[in-house]
Amino acid sequence: MAGAGTADEVQAFLRVNVVPKRRAEPRLAAALESVEKQIVPSPQGKVVAWRVGEGPAVVLVHGWEDDNSLWAPLIDALGERDRALVVFDLPAHGFSEGEWGLGPQAADGLAAVVAALGPIDAVVAHSFGVGGVMLAMSEGDLTVDRMVLIAPPLRTGNRWLRYAQRLAVTEDVAFAAQSMYEERIGPARASFDFRAELTDLDVDLLVIHSADDERFPLGDSEEFVRTCRRGEFVVVHGLSHRRSARDPAVVARIADFVSDGAPDR
């Protein structure tokens, strides 16, 4: 095994893992252009959010290096069903403030938005956003009746080592960066395994995964859903990782799922 690397190498690898790249100009879903922007204080800085409609709402949680614009088709579909919704940019993403952008920071941003713009009765999460949702639920900051997970990151193993392999970084550098990360966020959050939490959830659950997902293998979701109490699994084809959240048929399926039986506005 190679040496532990310099402090600069460890810091650089840490940043690759925890600091998302931002666009020069944040994107805004067209349907939100006429909606009042809400500025919500959070432990990670100011989070920008939008609420559409009155009463219990669906909260939409995007993934890594994404933003509110991911949900443009779903925002339209929920509006057609007269379903209240809350959408926001995670900390360190889009219009929101923040430096780090992993699950714990996502959970902090989500908790602040739920407290400020609730009530919330359903959640739709894409990709890495699933981890933030599950952490917020485990900490008592989010309670829902229905949950939709799109392309969830259910792969087991050490993500720091996976990134190290991908970037040709030594294992010692990866472990040093992981240690710095865990020291900052605390042992409880560092060891949180949302996969275990998911299997015990007593909610109506819909999991959607594209067979050609280039980020997370379909088989991980297939294996996981079999362990859930009330999980429904939908396999789609040819949609890849991000497009699986924007396909018209998928969007309609999600909108129907979170709107069925929802209270009238």
Can you give a write-up of this model?
The structure is a single chain. This protein is of the alpha/beta class. The chain has one domain (7-18, 34-259): 3-Layer(aba) Sandwich (Rossmann fold). It is built from eleven helices and eight strands. It has an eight-stranded mixed sheet, sandwiched between helices.
The CATH superfamily name is Alpha/Beta hydrolase fold, catalytic domain
The counted number of beta strands is: 8
Number of helices: 11
Q: What letter string, H or E per element, gives the SSE order?
A: HEEEHEHEHEHHHHEHEHH
Helix content: 25-40%
Task: Describe this structure in a few short sentences.
With 265 residues, the chain is α/β, with parallel strands linked by helices. It has helices at 7-18, 72-80, 103-117, 129-138, 159-167, 171-185, 187-190, 194-199, 218-225, 240-243, 248-259; strands spanning 37-42, 45-52, 57-61, 85-88, 120-126, 146-150, 204-210, 231-236. The protein has eleven helices and eight strands.
Please describe the topology of this protein.
Blueprint: H1 7-18, E1 37-42, E2 45-52, E3 57-61, H2 72-80, E4 85-88, H3 103-117, E5 120-126, H4 129-138, E6 146-150, H5 159-167, H6 171-185, H7 187-190, H8 194-199, E7 204-210, H9 218-225, E8 231-236, H10 240-243, H11 248-259
Parallel strand pairs: 3-4, 3-5, 5-6, 6-7, 7-8
Antiparallel strand pairs: 1-2, 2-4
Helix pairs in contact: 1-6, 2-11, 3-4, 5-6
